[in-house]
Amino acid sequence: MNKTHFLYLLFFVFLTACQKKNDTLPRKTSGKINTISVIIEDQLWNGEIGDSIRNKFASPVIGLPQEEPLFTINQYPVKLLEGFATDSRAIIVVKKGTKNSFEIKQNQYASPQNVFHITGKTGAAIIDTLEKNTSKIIQIIRATEIAESQRIINQSLLSPKIITNKFHISLNVPSDYEYMLHKSKFIWLKKEIISGNTSLLIYQVPLHTIKAGNDEIASIVRMRDSIGKYIHGTEPNTAMITEEGYAPYLFKTQLDGKKTYETRGTWELKNDFMAGSFINYAIIDKAYNRILVLEGFCYSPSKEKRDLMQELEAIIKSVHVIKR
What we know:
Helix content is 30%, strand content 32%. With 324 residues, the chain is α+β, with helices and mostly antiparallel strands. The strands form four sheets. Strands 9, 10, 11, 12, 13, 14, 15 and 16 form an eight-stranded antiparallel β-sheet that branches. It has a five-stranded mixed β-sheet with strand order 3-2-4-7-5. Strands 1-6 form a two-stranded parallel sheet. Helix 3 runs parallel beside helix 4. The longest helix is centred in the middle third of the chain and has 31 residues, at 123-153. The protein is elongated.
């Protein structure tokens, strides 16, 4: 064998090895954020089982001024399970069978992916399985969607220097955000979009600002409204406040391993007509003797806001407090 033939053979072996390696890798999932593929026969989808799925997974998102579904649902018959429907990050497979079962398979057809298999002997058994496992399914899907949003965000990031130096945190903010205002303990970043804009606030307040107990939500509203003086309309006396007609939703959670108050609701400009959604995380940071507040809000009067708020949530949940 001469040298030329040997090089051709070596190149062929290399290409074949690479091809085999690529064949073993799971293909990547695709599709829009917050979308579920439901694999179910039309007869079941058009009855009580379908109603139960829609009521649970397309229920209204809390904290938005207009009703929007928690997830966008695309329904496909079982025969399409081998087709493009398997590219989704979240798949719920529902069918009747000889036993009642619930199983979660990760990356079954692509990655990252969660496939939830629900089988029941009867329609009532399927609905019962849905009832018992809905909260777990939603929690898993939302975590995966947040991770997907963060993956997209991380492709192009704003320089973290100002945020890190001012607040001793790392935070992954997309590069299309711009600094609108920053003071000693306050930063406002903003991104213009076709339908309006989205904003991110970072600030800190003393630990005693939020009073534990029955006064927590009132304390958070007062805290928000005190900061609203920095965000205002073009006319005088138009500071941003928590919408007075509706009490925000309050949850207790953790960010970066720290006790956190999560508040969702709507904001408005006082004496003006602008309004929108907000999500506020108040992190109890005892190491720095402060409450670190990260808030996202949007103004998009003509468009849906669910996915805009999802991006803001994903940004905030990337926070990490740098140790002293």
